[in-house]
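Hi L.,

You mentioned the student needs an example of a multi-chain input paired with its predicted structure. This one should do, with 725 residues in total across all chains.
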Amino acid sequence: MKMNGARILLECLKREGVDTIFGYPGGTVINLYDELFSFKEIRHILPRHEQAGVHAADGFARATGKVGVAIATSGPGATNTITGIATAYMDSIPMVIVTGQVPTALIGNDAFQEADIMGITRPCTKHNFLVKDVKDLALIMKKAFYIARTGRPGPVLVDLPKDVQMAQTEFHYPETVEIRGYKPTVEGHPKQVEKAVSMILHAKKPVIYVGGGVILGNAAGELTELARRLGIPVTTTLMGLGSFPEDDSLSLGLLGMHGTYYANMAVSHCDLLIAVAARFDDRVTGKIASFAPHAKIVHIDVDPTSIKKNVRVDLPIVGDVREVLLQMLKVTEKPDESRADIAPWKAEIDGWKAKHPMTYQQTGTVIKPQYVIQRLRALSDPDAIVATDVGQHQMWTAQFFGFTTPRTLLSSGGLGTMGYGLPAAMGAQAAFPDRQVITICGDGGFQMNLQELATIVQNRLNVKICILNNNFLGMVRQWQELFFDKRYSSTCMELPIDFIKLAEAFGATGLQATKVDEVDEVIKKGFATPGPVLMEFKIAREEKVLPMVPAGASLTEMVLAS
Amino acid sequence: MRHTIAVLVENEFGVLSRVVGLFSGRGFNIDSLTVAPTNDESLSRITVVTRGDEQIIEQITKQLNKLIDVIKVIDFEPENAIEREMVLVKVSAEDESRAEVLRIADIFRAKVIDVTPKSYTLEATGTPAKVSAMVELLRPLGLKELVSTGPVVIGRGAKGWKG
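Structure written out for the whole complex:
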């Protein structure tokens, strides 16, 4: 059947199983929006800024594991998506972003609302396409979804000129797609897998270091089974939180700059580090030269470029993390009699846990942020989804919430994008209308995308917003306190905002806690109140995120909580 | 260490900028770069001369392979490859130096492709080492302009890149 490009695009989305998209109309996507007007199979959510639309699609993707879809018009609409795309790219989130473009005949003429979005997004997408002929559109969409979701996932942008949206052609959606330059490795090399298992069984001090790839690759179950079967302690990155239950005795929690004392000590003293779909980010390793100095390193990753990029690797395994873990589970089915005794190692770790557990002091009436995080965990649903912004509150959430389930923490890890939390929560709530979705923000990051209060109220996305308000850009302030002689240059927000009135102005409920004994009451009321609720917690203004490994220092050089 | 890498890519819009953008974005060196279509019209072949230690070269080849439009990356070992470049050199040639320029051209089997009372323009082809040796001999005579294709490289033996 003949149809126009705009309709073809929607038919492609439908065939990819897309039921929700986030987009903002404009001159070069007006034809697409006209088709959307009568296309009932797809729910369209209008954010108040294109950046937030992309973050929402990202939150949707992280929470569901599906490909998130966002639409923007050409020029400023497209450039507004960049931070959202770069955020998704750094964290390997599967997404397809469709941007309108000026008509093909005008491309390159500095036309109204023209931007070279292909050039601009080349370094922050997994791939991008310009559709020059409507006959290519269906195949390009098929490729875009295939590339976005396979291998190491990532955002793919499709630039769609206005005339291509209007042009007519026969619609056929290809069943399969073959890209000769793109063949992700799925199965791990069997010999390498056997070698890895043998190294693990003979290690006296093994540690498993888990990254976000385990969540993206739906391999949390396999990872947990392997760690428990072999009794190996597990530490995770920020992106890996939720892949291994933190209430398990093998859990060491977070490692790296704001990791636990015992995770960092374990990594620094282990004789074998098993890196599973993690990429040795500088926030994880600290000073590379003294990272895991006594360890042989096994590195499992779907992306060959991650291997040996930052650290030496003794045994690489390229493959889909779930496949490789299944292979390892098969090889370790029967107990090995020659297994090294790791009991002394676990005792050593228990010693570190006892010496410096994760702690903070809640004294007096001033609310400590860590206390709020713990109360949120205690009072929220077990399957609640938490989206954070970026900064101190993000680290406190990572340290004190205690994640046990994959896809329950949505956080911008790689790019560290302030303003991510609220729109990401909005995306997750759109995917799961019946689950509790909480966003934990600072007062700084919240203000970067607060316009989305309108979107959540309008679309009945009942996000529970928790603002840890210290009236500071807290993380930068902390660095200024520690490394810049308390010269608080431009980190005090000064203007006190009435967040309750702000919430009410958008039609949401606003609540506030200023003393520690009000925290539970506000959380309970906030969770019990139907619709979107903003809960503001006035917290101790100069509370620091600890432990902390100063940038460029070794993981053993931690500043600890007193 | 110097490496000459051949990159077979889809002959499509924007591919060269993906490759070049990768080098600039990740701080890899490009000493020279050539690109042209191949016998298979759907493919272009890029030859990049770059430098770096083993770890950097490994990253370069892996990152190139990661690009969707890249079909094959070959990091040639010098002993298994033939490398050639071409230069066009405009050199001053007046009075006594006219004969010297021609002698040098003859030694390196360069061709005179343009001549004026004050200059010769030479075309020379060979390994980068040979071409550079000729240029160094011409330099003191008054090198007015030099343009080079940068090296291209092909593997030795009967097999093509597909095997």
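You could point out the following to them. Chain A touches chain B at residues 118-119, 122-123, 126-127, 130, 147, 179-182, 303-305, 307-309 (CB under 8 Å). Residues 235 and 252 of chain A are 5 Å apart (CA to CA).

Best wishes,
N.
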